[in-house]
Records
---
Amino acid sequence: MKALVIYISVHHGNTEKIAKVMANALDADLLQVKRMNASMLEQYDFIGFGSGIYFGKYHKSLLDFADTLPMLRNKKAFIFSTSGLRKIRCIHDFSKPLKEKLQQKGFDVIGEFSCRGFDTSWAAMIVGGINKGRPNARDLKQAEDFARALRDSRPSG
Ligand SMILES: Cc1cc2nc3c(=O)[nH]c(=O)nc-3n(C[C@H](O)[C@H](O)[C@H](O)COP(=O)(O)O)c2cc1C
């Protein structure tokens, strides 16, 4: 199985750190979403989609990219993010829109990873920024373990 990690990381490069660790653990190609077009997915059967969380959602370019995809078959996906605040069901459920879009395009979404990232957006700046130093070594290790567990759960080939 051939793996690809697609990401966008615009605020502090937080998600890029996670994307690199995951791509390495999966022996996957790593591409920014702005370099992607839908036909490039043909050669991959396992694809990760990641970004920071902005205004309660994954980055718009990742959601828009998912919209451009045709119906796909036999592809597995996982999603990953860094965010200022953790996910809270109903109030701050940032995964749902991306996950649903991917499922509507035929992906089997088999995993989700999220950790905190340094945040100096306007709300966080009131307290001088939050999650300084994150993702930290522990977050990166957890991201690596998550990716390895996904890798080990797939048939090789
Ligand atoms: C404009 C803006 C909006 C944000 N909105 C949210 C939000 O709704 N929820 C949240 O938990 N974090 C929010 N954040 C914090 C980011 O998700 C966090 O810093 C993330 O790690 C950024 O990832 P990046 O450096 O890869 O872009 C926001 C940050 C910015 C700059």
---
Amino acid sequence: MAAHVTAVINQKGGAGKTTLAMNLAAGLARRQQTVLVDLDPQGSARQWASLGSEAFPAPVKQIVGPWDARSLHQGFKNYRHVVLDCPPSLDSHASQAALRACDVALIPVLPSPVDLWASLRLPEEIEAARKDNPGLRAYIVLNQLEPKSAISSAMHHALADFGMPVLAATIRRRAIYRGAALEGVSVYQMGNRAAPAVAEFEAIINEVIAS
Ligand SMILES: Nc1ncnc2c1ncn2[C@@H]1O[C@H](COP(=O)(O)OP(=O)(O)OP(=O)(O)O)[C@@H](O)[C@H]1O
Ligand SMILES: [Mg+2]
């Protein structure tokens, strides 16, 4: 069976792509064989995985040279899930190829209209990619939500203008996410103190991938 490919993409820097990709890959790895592909020349995912005292639950790989959906599936044919951590640029080959190779695109967005405005080209790029990849499903994932503070009406308007479905599952701002990166692990390796964060990732997986 062909691997299920999830691309984590947003040209806005610091929106939470690598945080989402790494923890998602770790959650998927508990279910089936999963690989994380670090498409960002910054190499943050690879660095993150290298910090842990044990191997990261999903191997982190890189791709050298141009690639497409076919070569991605061929190269990772032993995996059931492929998670792509994209660079903060839509003009790179990696981002363009990722949108054409993925089943699902997850777009982490900080809960501020200003951050969303920085990503306005994404819906167009997703539409363009659907010409080659008609089954592509794309969702916004709200990241770094503050406990107790509701999403502003300005943000609701900005999300409506963006015109892309928003996952019901969201990610809160939690120190444990930064801690996981520093320790080179995912929240799934951090015991009880990370249970709320694990629950957030289980909700994302159940809403968009496992169903
Ligand atoms: N939900 C969260 N709670 C707390 N900190 C977070 C959360 N999500 C991300 N961060 C922190 O925000 C910073 C940016 O996150 P991350 O590196 O995942 O973003 P990115 O989109 O991959 O960035 P880049 O565009 O540079 O690749 C990191 O320090 C990360 O630990
Ligand atoms: Mg990143």
